[in-house]
Amino acid sequence: MPRPPATPDADLPGVNAVTEPSTKAEVVAVPRLELCVEREAGKPASRSMVLDGDFIRVGSHPSNDLVLADRAVSRFHCILERVRSTFRLTDVGSRNGTYIAGVRVRDADAVLPECRIELGESVVRIRDADAVAETEIARAPSFGALQGLSVPMRRLFPILERVAKSAPDVLIEGENGTGKEVIATELVQRSARANKPLVIVDCGAISPSLIESELFGHVRGSFTGASRDRAGAFEEADGGTVFLDEIGELPLEMQPKLLRALASREVRRLGEGRVRKVDIRVIAATNRRLEREVNSGRFREDLYYRLSVLTVRVPPLRERKEDIGLLVQCFLNELGAIDKADLFPPEVIEDMKRYDWPGNVRELRNYVERRVVLGDGAAMGATAPDERSAAPAAAAAPAAPAAASIEMPFKEAKDAIIDRFERDYLAALLEWSNGNVSRAARKAGLDRMYLHRLLQRHGLRRAAALD
């Protein structure tokens, strides 16, 4: 396939576990990667560098691990990511493409021990270096609600411990169902802001016309339907944490306003001139490659750097299949179905390890629940039934409301009964879902953000976990 001419580039898992990670960690050796630049911007070159780590970015922007002074190389051009014994090469939406042996690739396992990649008018040879580096892995197979015996997860746990104790904002990257919201919850619970408010904003579930009000609040009359003053998420979380879920879905026109708020820690309610100071930590999560979004112009580069002061990358389940047996045990315990363990003999677990689980830990949990309900008839990869119909029979039912009292006015009596019913229902719902808000919302047929507000209103937010 002939290459087109190059042109300059335009500017973990909701399981109910309580085991804490060990404070001590093992030290293991990991290989290093050597990158040799053989041609740069069309001219012969000779420079090399040896890099540690499992995630190496290549591009023309100075923040990359390997920076190429080539106008035909995109700001974020490609990523080399270690997966077990090899490296995966991923093009993140570059303008001119990434090639191996003249063939354009978007996602490929790089050929090791040596491989030459062509990007823009440059050529880089990659190979495993002779030297090795040392890295820490946790001894315990858990970090709060996160479970994992695999090396990728046990390497993640010490990183999370350090991130939790730090102050900067955090970006959590991972595919759908990998447990990004669980990680956010664990980081908050181990931080200095653990006893302060945690406010969740799902950037993908709010109308673009309402996202500014949701984040920063509004005053009465600022838009149609604004019947009263309202504080936004940043004000409500003052002293605590704001979790911005699916930050990659944030409308482009809203991104400069968020950037200013993050930089100044000041917010201005919609329709108001007064500026309010806020003391918050921001944790953002995305299932997108934000480097790709920056290259395409859908995400601001400066906002990306503001959010990613610390970045946590969650491995997909297909890269840690040795954790499947442990996760199955955890899910059975969560479902109160330990007596169904005979549905998952070693041969079934081995079959499960041969499946790639595109829905990650969430899909695995749904499959375990289906198999508990349906037995051997549940198939991997099948469309999950409505979780409400697949709910365990032992799910708690809300208590019946108390009899009405005529010792107070009708409206007050009605409000008291409704308030009691809501609290009892929500408490039973959280018990059924083991504190998983997203799953509880699906069970109750409620919007997740509305459920968050109900939980906060009744003081049940601290008991809730995220999936």
Describe this structure in words.
With 467 residues, the chain is of the alpha+beta class. Helix content is 29%, strand content 24%. It has 13 helices and 22 strands. A six-stranded antiparallel β-sheet has the order 2-1-11-10-7-8. Helix 1 packs across helix 2 and helix 5 (255-264) packs across helix 7. The chain is globular, with a radius of gyration of 25 Å.
N/C terminus separation: 44 Å
The average pLDDT value, as a whole number, equals 83
Q: How much helix is in the residues? A: 25-40%
**Silhouette:** globular
How many strand units?
A: 22
Class per helix and strand makeup: alpha+beta
* Unreliable stretches: 11-23, 382-401, 462-467
Beta-strand share of residues: 15-25%
- Enumerate the strands of the largest sheet in spatial order, edge to edge or round the barrel: 2-1-11-10-7-8
Number of DSSP helical runs: 13
Largest sheet: 6 strands, antiparallel
Task: Compute the CA-based radius of gyration.
Answer: 25 Å
